[in-house]
Amino acid sequence: MLTLGIDSGTQSTKCLVLETETGAILASAQRSHSFIEDLPPGHIEQDPHVWTSAADDTIRECLAQAGTRKDEIKAIGVSGQQHGLVALDKENEVIRPAKLWCDTSTQKECDQFSQEFDGVEGLVKLAGNPILVGYTASKILWLKQNEPANYAALNSILLPHDYLNFWLTGVKRMEYGDASGTGLMDVRERAWCGPLCDFIDKRIEGFLPKVESSRGLTGLLREKLRKQWGLKGSPVVSAGGGDNMMGALGTGNVRAGVVTASLGTSGTLYSYAKEPVVDKEGEVAAFCDSTDGWLPLVCTMNVTVATEQARRLFGWDHPGFDEALANTPAGADGLLFLPYLNGERTPNLPNARGVLHGLTAQNMTPGHIARAVTEGVTLGLAYGLKRLCQLGIKPAEIRLTGGGSNSPLWRQICSDVFGVPTMCLRSSEGAALGAAIQAYWACELANGKAVRLSQLTDRLVKVDETTRSEPEGQAVEVYQKLLSRQTELTRRLHAAGFA
Description:
By secondary structure, this protein is α/β, with parallel strands linked by helices. It is built from 18 helices and 24 strands. The longest helix has 25 residues.
């Protein structure tokens, strides 16, 4: 059997064709897309039609690469960027551009939720998560309060991957994993939280699709698309999921002990759990996953966005940046970088800014700054990992994805900072691969085959042992001290109103 996986991300759409018997990637394609320009500060939006156009282009390219085997494609899975608000009217037309996960224009609405429900503690008690600025809930309230005409036209609310599923099948549904990132779902009960929905509008629950199992199917591919793509039969479309949920499948993160860390523009760090992992302090997102389990997750806003800024600042190519890292000792001779160029989500400091602390005549060099920036963003993820461990997650290994994981030097820094072995996967397309694997799994389940997802990931997800890094004792000790220093410095700056 062949399956097709689509990953609709913030900056691009990727598509691949997976041969389920061998795990071979038979075809792949990618299209870039950008944000809408000239919006006010904090507003980050995309037109959902850009996603469908990019998906159509990449699917057609993959089908062309698959050649005569394209009719062996029996299932399609979709991964999408989390938290985006897709607002549809009664005719199922997009009302306005989608506000994305990285849109920070809704802080006022987050504060309103917090005031109504007794802050982080009250929100976590009610539904398992606070309402953070990236979550969909605050975007819906923003739409109501800022664009009344558009809100009056609202008839359906979908997430980005749900919208692509709707485009593929004509069916509207949400599954537990991505739905948990709206902020409106009670993650313990895996059901919409009435009080939170009603706070926006008593009609909101009626605008949201019924939330259902992540193991199910959304429907059959539309006949119109089947004909356009020249397929003899209509593949099934699985439930799909958010990019982090699909990334977990694509990195084999479906059992306790495995942690995935993504070194992308932003950073995520997450693990599988059999029971809800609810953080009373609200720093770890208590998400559901795409296996009908849970996915405790930490998100940081600044990873390669910071390292790329440093690289361009000094005019290096990527090998030159790595050379600068290699020629500078762990700890950068006391130079510490607080990586809050875009504010921060963990810890929740949306108005924080970056800091270079500990500058001396010795360490005020390009190499030291490059090392401090790389260490600083990695320590930011380590802050989240420490909180995950406090909540019972016990990492045996960390699987790295994202552009930063291509650097051997950075992989070693990750191992030393996290204190556990790290490695990459043979396939770098974690979310698209995860979507293709989920499509395979859902198709098998629908055909009455009792297949465990871990059986599939053990066979189809392969670790690249050549990328394995082991913690080095002296560096681990240096980074433990640096993490304490970074945490304390952030706390003091925040208390003084500077972060």
